[in-house]
Amino acid sequence: MIGLAAHSASNSPAAMSAVPASRSFHGIAGSPMFAWLVDRFDLAVLLVDAETRLLFANRAAEELLQAGQVLRLRNGIVEVACRSENRAFRDAIATCLRRVGDGIEQGDTALPIILGRGPAPLSGCVAALPADLCGIGQGKAVASLFLVDPQGWHRPSMTQLQACFGLTPAEAALALEILVGDGLQACAGRLGISQTTARTHLGHVFEKTGTRRQAELVRLLLGTRLPLRLAPLR
């Protein structure tokens, strides 16, 4: 987790990875409980001020900044790697914070945002977080960013599918392969089973999940995954 005292003048991945995690916040944002919770979100969470100066980044956000493909950290300032998008990024944050200054309720200040080009951009929202709520920002309003990286959005685990739907290990394995989306024959090939066996497993999966088509099954399975990093963090 990157905190107020964890900035580096360099935006290189090597420099960022060497920065120690900070617990310098006051109040709940500096507590071990807060750090433990937000570092286990797959969702990237950042806090920035009106100049997009980084105040906080959880583990998922830190990884995005280290990669530098969509977001990067330069002299403590969060930037969009694509310069043509950086102005819109800063404008979204300014608009969000201005609405709070105009007295609009906090719940009405969230703005949707898409960052990055190509088939897998980051999506999420910007929401204003008044500094007096958590004691950071030296009395100034703070913008919170919640971003989803589709490339880092993991599938549900076999254990989770077995617990949720009562699937056998073989059925859960097939269900996960179905999420790849390249057909039953390809799934069977990867699992080293015949198509007949794959059809049998799929029938059991449909029955246990209450679905009838693969598209239905995919929607259900993607909706059951936990957006958490429950494995030990390195």
Describe the structure concisely.
This protein has 234 residues and is an alpha+beta fold. It is built from nine helices and seven strands. A hairpin with a 6-residue loop joins strand 5 and strand 6.
CATH structural architecture of the largest domain: 2-Layer Sandwich
- The tally of beta strands, per DSSP, is 7
Provide a count of the helices: 9
The percentage helix is 25-40%
**Residue runs with pLDDT of under 50 for 5 or more positions:** 4-28
Quote the average pLDDT: 79
Give the number of domains.
2
For the biggest β-sheet, the strand order reads 2-1-7-6-5
Q: Pairing-aware structural class of the strands and helices?
A: alpha+beta
- How much strand content do the residues show? 15-25%
CATH topology of the largest domain: Beta-Lactamase
CATH class of the largest domain: Alpha Beta
**SSE ordering:** HHEEHEEHEEEHHHHH
Note the gap between the termini: 12 Å
Name the CATH superfamily assignment of the largest domain. Answer: PAS domain
Radius of gyration: 21 Å
